[in-house]
Amino acid sequence: MSRAWAGYAGLLLLCACARPDAAPMADNVSAEPTQAVADLLAMADHAARDPKRDGQRLSDTLAALDQLGARPADPAADPLPGWREALPSKVAQPLRGRMLGPAYRRGTLAAGASMTLMQLFDGGRQARVAVAAAGAMPLRMAVLDDGGKAVCPDHVAPRGACRWVPPFSGRHQIIVTNAGDAPSAYYLVID
User: Fold this and answer.
1) What does pTM read for this prediction?
2) Structural domain includes residue 144
3) Within this chain, do residues 81 and 140 fall inside the same structural domain, yes or no?
4) 118 and 171 share one domain
5) What digits encode the pLDDT tens for the residues 84-132?
6) Residue 83 pLDDT > 60, yes or no?
7) Helix/strand/coil for 143
8) Residue 75 belongs to some domain of the structure
9) Which pLDDT score, from 0 to 100, does residue 159 have?
10) Buried b vs exposed e over 109-137: b needs ≥16 C-beta within 10 Å?
11) Where does residue 135 fall: left (phi above 0), alpha (psi -120 to 50 degrees), or beta otherwise?
12) Distance from first CA to last CA of the chain, Å, rounded?
C-alpha cells in the first residue's frame, strides 16, 4: 500500500468516525486509487451543485483528492479551484497534497456520443484508467492498445476501471461513450 493511499484510507476513516453521515463516502469510493479519484471527483461535483450544500462534506472530499495526489490533465478546465472558492469561510480548507499522482479530466457527453483520447503508457509499469459519471448515467469505457486490441473489456456502468501492465511502451486509445439517453458529465482519471 502506497503512503498516499494509506493516508487517504486514514482520512476516510477519520471522516467516517467524526461525522455519522460521512460513512457512505467510504462505502461509495473504490479501493483502487484511479477509480477512487474518479469516484471522489463525481462526489465533489455533486456536493458542489447540491442546493443544500454541505461545505464540510465537499471539504472532506477535496482533502481526500489531495491525499491521492490527483492533478488536472488540463489545468484550464480544472473544477477544483472553483469548488475550493465555493466553500464557506467557516469550513476548513484542505491543504494541497503531493504534486505527483493520477491526472483527471472532466468532460460532458451528449446522449449516445463518444470521446476518444490517445494516451502513452510505459511498458512494464502498471497503467490505470477509471471513469465515473457525475450522475447515475451509464457510461461505456474501453481501452485499446496501439494495434486496436482490447486491453480491458467494454462494459456499461456509472463507473468503471481498467488496470493492466503494458509489455511495451506505446499509445493506447481510451474510449468513453454515453450509453444513456441524456447528456452526462464524467471524470476520466489516468495514472
Assistant:
1) 0.55
2) yes
3) no
4) yes
5) 887 765 554 443 333 446 888 888 999 999 998 888 888 888 888 999 8
6) yes
7) strand
8) yes
9) 77
10) beeeeeeeeebebeeeeebbbbbbbbeeb
11) beta
12) 16
The whole-chain average pLDDT of the chain stands at 76
Least confident of 22-26, 76-80, 178-182, 186-190: 22-26
> Across the chain, how many H-helices and E-strands are there?
5, 9
Which residues constitute the domain of residue 152? 103-190
The residue length of the chain stands at 191
Asked which of 53, 86, 119 is the last residue of a domain, the reply is 86
- Which residues make beta-bridge pairs with 150? 144
Check whether residue 48 and residue 121 sit in a common domain.
Answer: no
Instruction: Give the confidence band of 143 by pLDDT, cuts at 50, 70, 90.
Output: very high
Q: Which one, of 189, 124, 134, lies nearest residue 162 by Cα?
A: 189
pLDDT (0 to 100) of residue 153: 76
For residues 76 and 146, state if they share a domain.
no
**Which spans in the chain are helix H?**
3-18, 23-27, 33-49, 55-68, 80-86
CATH code where residue 159 lies: 2.60.120.380
Structural domain tally of the chain?
2
108 and 170, same domain (yes or no): yes
